[in-house]
Task: structure prediction
Amino acid sequence: MEAKPDPTEPLDELVSTAKRHLLANYRPPALVMSHGRGSELFDTEGNRYLDFCAGVAVCCLGHAHPALSAALSAQASRICHVSNYFYNYENVMLAGELCAATGFDRAFFCNSGTEAVEASLKLVRRWFHEQGEPRVRLIAFEKAFHGRTLGALALTGTPAYRVGFGDPLPGVDHVPYGDLKAVAGLMGSDVAAVVVEPLMGEGGVIPAPTGFLQGLRELCDAHGALLVFDEIQTGIGRTGKFLAADHTGVAADVMTLAKGLGGGVPIGALLLREQLADGLPPGAHGSTFGGNPLASVAARTVLRVLRDEGLVEAAARQGERLGRLLAGLAAKHPTICLGERGMGLLRAITLTERVAARDILPVAREHGLLLTAAGARALRFTPPLIVTDAEIDEAVDKTDRVLAAVASRG
Ligand SMILES: *Cc1c(COP(=O)(O)O)cnc(C)c1O
Result:
């Protein structure tokens, strides 16, 4: 059974209301998405898209997964929100399940990625404060993306995102991703943490170079600093392991999750080792909505479906297939493509200087394929983890035609 879109408002009127009343901080095309099913998305005009954006690596179970829909509607008819003045069953169960899945000991819940990053910054700084050894310096990476609130923004390694917002949070240094020597040069007894994406997502789908995460671990250990992995984009099976860090065996002290965690329902999490548990004592941090029963049941359902349907293994298998086919396409269109990179179902075709990734997106959309750009020159593919062989073949075929059209334009 297909959900029907609300038909009361014609498309052009909706778009004109949007242009008048929504803040103009995004630049969406003039179309309205109505409903989805699996890896497919439909707009209000009835056009079908193959959704290899998946809500920016969020909709890991695809759209309208029956288990997620059922769990949400059952929870909504029981209780949606209680505040953190009380325990709630789904949230406590989720904390235990997430810790079991990741090897961390404790969880704090919030509503987005950037909030999880904020919480990680407060945790590491406050923890050193509680030890009587205050440290505030943080090391992050050029082109890294950690979110848009002012604390997380200070870590985000794209200076343009900080323009006009005043002095950034002090104490943050950026070095090139993968450059252990540069990290070593900045390390010292005043560094609280190194914050890193185990695979750089928004910055261009760049896997960590071999030995990089291990090297960071060693540098942090040598200087008593904490290692924070931002797995907001890479976690929850996206790269073919539950966490991207699981490919290396390197364990962080603190980790952030969001995006795929709720399968489309907003939820973020901060996970930490027991030794940091007193880092945020009562009153030091909080969130009104964080970990509410509705968001928690969504995340529990995602974890259960990942396990029951073998979706982490599927992401590895399908990711390999997608990667192989995209590498073939890149070789077939050498005037605009450099190659392919990524892990699992977080993949990109890298582009030559002749073409900007952002300019390909409307062409792909006209061919019924939704993609995203990651940085200026990476065309990113993040299908739901439930994506089928046939859907991958269809997306690759569409991408072939899109690249041919873009290349012939010159
Ligand atoms: C998306 C993302 C964020 C920010 O998440 P929001 O939910 O948009 O605040 C932070 N870090 C990484 C690695 C991300 O990919």
Summary: The first helix runs from residue 11 to 21.
